[in-house]
Amino acid sequence: MQPNGSFLFRHPAHLLAFGFGAGLAPKAPGTVGTLVALPLYFLLLPLGSWYWLAVALALLVGVWACDVAGRALGVHDHGGIVWDEIAAFLLVLPFAPQNLAGFAMAFALFRLFDIWKPFPIRWFDRQVPGGLGVMLDDILAAGYAILCLMGIAIWL
């Protein structure tokens, strides 16, 4: 099944899993989905320390939404499912220098690790089924990106 706008509105989980439509991008939906995290970041930033609760909820709800959408499509981790990129990139953004160059660096690092999937990311991606598996590889990619950002911050 090729998802479309009609698919998104059949179930709230589909709309969320496809990043409110970002996952329907004909090219590089994961990259487009990652970019959706930026406006969400700025919307959530005024929450202060509650930001982390909002991100935790986004990750938990993402497990459910990605699982529901994947089962509906019959594909465990369909390329259009981008909530995993969105929620995981929300983990990375607070660790980036809070300027355009810092956000670009965070974006590049996150996408690098999400696409490359160095150990153990690729292993988890292949071994953990369902929505948890969809979310987990991006959470691990976010961890690698955060470690790099923290290392860069120490050197600067």
What keyword list fits this structure?
8 helices; 156 residues
Describe this structure in words.
It is a single chain. With about 160 residues, the chain is mainly α. It has one domain. The protein contains 8 helices and no strands. It is globular and about 50 Å long. The N and C termini lie far apart (about 50 Å). The model has no long low-confidence stretch (mean pLDDT about 95).
Structurally, the number of domains stands at 1
Mean pLDDT across every amino acid position: 96
Q: Which bin fits the share of residues in helices?
A: 55-70%
Major β-sheet profile: none
Gyration radius, to the nearest Å?
A: 15 Å
Outline the low-pLDDT stretches: none
Report strand %. under 5%
Order of helices and strands: HHHHHHHH
Please identify the structural class as seen in this structure: mainly alpha
In whole angstroms, how far apart are the ends?
A: 49 Å
Instruction: Compute the number of helices.
Output: 8
Q: What overall geometry do the principal axes of the alpha carbons give?
A: globular
What's the total number of strands?
Answer: 0
Short description:
The chain is mostly helical. It has helices spanning 5-8, 12-17, 29-44, 51-73, 83-92, 100-116, 121-127, 130-155.
List the helices and strands and how they pair.
Elements lengths: L4 H4 L3 H6 L11 H16 L6 H23 L9 H10 L7 H17 L4 H7 L2 H26 L1
Helix pairs in contact: 3-5, 4-5, 4-8, 5-8, 6-8, 7-8
